[in-house]
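FW: tagging you since you asked about this chain on Friday. Here's the raw sequence from the shared folder, copied in full. Didn't touch anything.
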Amino acid sequence: YKNRAQNNVWGSWVWPYPPTGQTVDMRLKNNGTGRKNVKIRAEIKAGQATTPPGPYLSSFAGNHTLISFAYRSVGNCNVISGLGGVRVPFVVTANVVGACTVNSTDLNFGTTGLLNSNVDTTNIISVQCSPGIPYTIGLSNGSSGGSGPTNRIMAAGANSTTYGIYSDPARTSAWGDSIGVNTVAGVGSGFNQNFTGYGRVPPQTTPPPGIYSDTVTITLTY
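HL: got it, structure written out here
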């Protein structure tokens, strides 16, 4: 771009269409020489999440980098054939590394009374990883002292209730944080990939009324 706001595209004088090249006025010394620095401002646009990791390169040479000039006040850079010119090749590079993000909704069992039957609910865990990046999603046993994926604890003061999180609708595959044992795996596509956590409060002795909660940490390994 030609400007700091990056809304004025730097084009070329060698094609008959906009955008055009950059015009620079320079005052020369008595010996006919001069120097002026012109900054090229570049930007990699957002919305390219499907770009695979790796080194990227673009070479500018030949007429792509033609700097034309005229040693007179009426010089017109649009008329390349009538002006001097020098070609200054350069290379544009960028290294795209693999990256991932993860987000989750809450696992809300709602309001219930006696815990004499299963209480089920679900949440969504959303992962976005660079294309081709393999990853695993692990869930901790919670912050309330749970002993395992199916024995997590929701606490309300000194009282507690047991629950589990599973990776399948039948709630037979416990979702924990032991990679290769009870984690969930995926391969990045550049887009959001959603996974469902299947929660269950099993039948148990009903604790005193209260608001029970736990905090589970998601670990995304890639």
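FW: DSSP finds no helices and twelve strands in the chain.
HL: agreed, and Residues 64 and 74 are 24 Å apart (CA to CA).
FW: great, closing this out.
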